[in-house]
What we know:
By secondary structure, the chain is α/β, with parallel strands linked by helices. The chain is built from 16 helices and 21 strands. Helix 14 packs antiparallel against helix 16. The two termini are 44 Å apart.
Amino acid sequence: MPEEGVQLTPKSDLLTTQEIITLAKLFVKEGVEKIRLTGGEPLIRPDVVDIVGQLCKLEGLKTIAVTTNGMNLTKLLPRLKEAGLNAINISLDTLVPAKFEFIARRKGFHKVMEGIHKAIELGYRPVKVNCVVMRGFNEDELLGFVDFTKDLPLDVRFIEYMPFDGNKWNFKKMVSYREMLDTVKQQWPELEKLSCETSSTAKSYKVPHFQGQISFITSMSEHFCGSCNRLRITADGNLKVCLFGNSEVSLRDYLRSGASEEELVQVIGAAVGRKKKQHAEPALMLFPLCQDALHNSPNSKQWGHTFSHWLTLRARFPRQMRKALMENKLTGQLCLPRSVPEQQCHITTGILRPHLRGSCVFQKDSSSTFDPKCLDASPVSQVSVDYQSKGASPGSELGTMVSRASDSLTHTDEEGRATMVDVGGKPCSRRSAVAIAVVRLGEKAFGMVRQNQVKKGNVVAVAQIAGIQGAKLTSQLIPLCHNIPLNHVEVSLSLDEDRHAVVIRSACQTWGRTGVEMEALTAASLAALTVYDMCKAVTHDIVIEEVKLLSKTGGQRGDFSRV
Length: 563
């Protein structure tokens, strides 16, 4: 839900119950066998049970499904099942309650979980759980969602984030199917691929001996437009033949103007005839091409597939761009001309690639120091909250150094220029770090935070999420930091009444060749800045102080502790 809310469509513009059933009859008569009620949120319609009941009576309709956020599911599902609902999808993007509240802008995680268990109890098999995976937000929960299928008959469907805003492409948040699959296989190498129907939008897998399964909806990196047999009708009666298309036809207006069934069929047929072969623009189609380049060496047999894929697309590129792509293809590189906007080149995989001035070059580096063996098998992000009343200040400790200091700066070369440290020769070890920050708010703002009266929302919950996200994005914010897999991130906020301050504590862990001090410090700093941002409308007399490392363990330089 956007922070500013959404503009509601007038009720008179929405399809009535009878209009929905009239259109459903028409589509079923023309061969449609499955109807899904989705949204928005379909279960807020007071007539939803009646709609399902009337759909169930349509001869030839085999499946009636619903996609819901799950908030009202426990209450409504018994009646929906009795009315004829026989398939259900529940949207759930996180297993962390605080993240859920951040997304939905209200509590309700426990209601969704109750809805999932109620669906299982009523015999739905499988219960599909839709999870949109977003970089920097919930990609660290992939393994937790897979584990969710261990003892429950679920089909957790990981959906590639569809990065369109006003129909403009933006890949910053997208995590590809291949990247997600690689992450899962590192934990469960025995993962089995399942067969699926030709028209299926999902690629399904199963961990042996797990009750449930997982699926990937690859609408971005490996689109399925050629086999897509879906049509969509919006709540106000517009027919869309593609989710990404701007073109819509108002069936509501035709209905209300008295159009005959034959005329409606002609209108629908004309719209379907205009459906494009694929939804992607040229910038989008660079993604699967470059993704293959990053996952396979130049000598791999899979280059043949990539090359043929490129051949089918080349007519859509300007001549200059085609030439640049072709020349660099032979060297194992994909290089876009300088004329291409930088935002079209932000293509990411498990290892984030640096942005180079003048052009964006993506190349598989055979000398990469990244060792996948350093990945921990169970990455987790946790959040905790506590309330500290008139206690000792965590920021008042004296520091003691127990580590071996260096006589020189490690991030400069012999000529004093900035350089990234080569960690390839270092041994892997478990590393951890703890950092804090203090935000002095003043009496008024502190009281509003304590009473959760800040207009922008729950300061503590939002700052916690910001801290976790900050830790995961450290390598993108601090130029010379390595991109490392974090096994654990914890951010907690406590309220210090004596100082009218929010005390932030962050802890990070990894198993690898370099430490996580910067990740812990970034988490604390981002959480502190978020507190400032959310409270600045109350007062600008806010002070962020005592941003410091409390402790770190692991590495050749030994441990550090501020006692």
